[in-house]
């Protein structure tokens, strides 16, 4: 049951009204009241106004909560897109430093340092997350890259290029 339907149902029950009484008071069809309370449809506009006036609920309460839910959905989508892009960037940095044809010992040392300090910074900034959540959100790119390295390069070559140790260090730090 969505929030609006639940609130209407609870308020109607607390006032001792039947669905028929509410339909009569609000001048809305009984079937409409039943659909709202059974979560078959969500009241909007005039219907919501009439029902709220009949049971003396402020319609603004619903509208502010509904807009908050919409904002949270958008924020969630933006956060997920950000996490995907961040994982791709982190993996690309490590891969570039280790797998580049001109990579030397300095770039491999840089890859090791970044494989420790970037996840350490993420851990510092996300202390409120559990380790499992942190690995799922920020380490999934590393884990997928490790699997792809094993498949494409083979295990011996992935270890020889120092890609495997860098990725394992990153995941372990998270």
UniProtKB/TrEMBL annotation:
Residues 12-62 form the HTH cro/C1-type domain. Signal peptide: none annotated. It comes from the Bacteria. The chain crosses the membrane at residues 77-99, 105-124, 144-172. GO terms for molecular function: DNA binding. InterPro entries: Cro/C1-type_HTH, Lambda_DNA-bd_dom_sf. The keyword NADP does not apply. The keyword Calcium does not apply. Keywords: Membrane, Transmembrane, Transmembrane helix. This is Helix-turn-helix transcriptional regulator. It comes from Flavobacterium muglaense.
């Amino acid at each position: 049951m969505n929030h609006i339907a639940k609130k209407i149902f609870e308020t109607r029950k607390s006032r001792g009204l039947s669905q028929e009484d509410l339909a009569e008071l609000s001048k809305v069809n009984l079937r409409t009241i039943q659909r709202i309370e059974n979560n078959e449809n969500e009241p909007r506009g005039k219907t919501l106004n009439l029902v709220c006036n009949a049971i003396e609920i402020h319609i603004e309460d619903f509208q502010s909560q509904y807009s908050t839910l919409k904002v949270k959905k958008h924020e969630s989508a933006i956060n997920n897109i950000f996490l995907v892009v961040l994982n791709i960037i982190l993996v690309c940095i490590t891969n570039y430093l280790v797998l580049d044809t001109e990579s030397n010992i300095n770039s491999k040392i840089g890859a090791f340092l970044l494989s420790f300090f970037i996840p350490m910074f993420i851990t510092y900034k996300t202390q409120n997350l559990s380790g499992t959540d942190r690995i799922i959100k920020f380490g999934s790119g590393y884990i997928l890259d490790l699997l792809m390295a094993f498949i494409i390069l083979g295990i011996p070559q992935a270890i020889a290029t120092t890609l495997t140790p860098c990725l394992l260090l990153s995941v372990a730090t998270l």
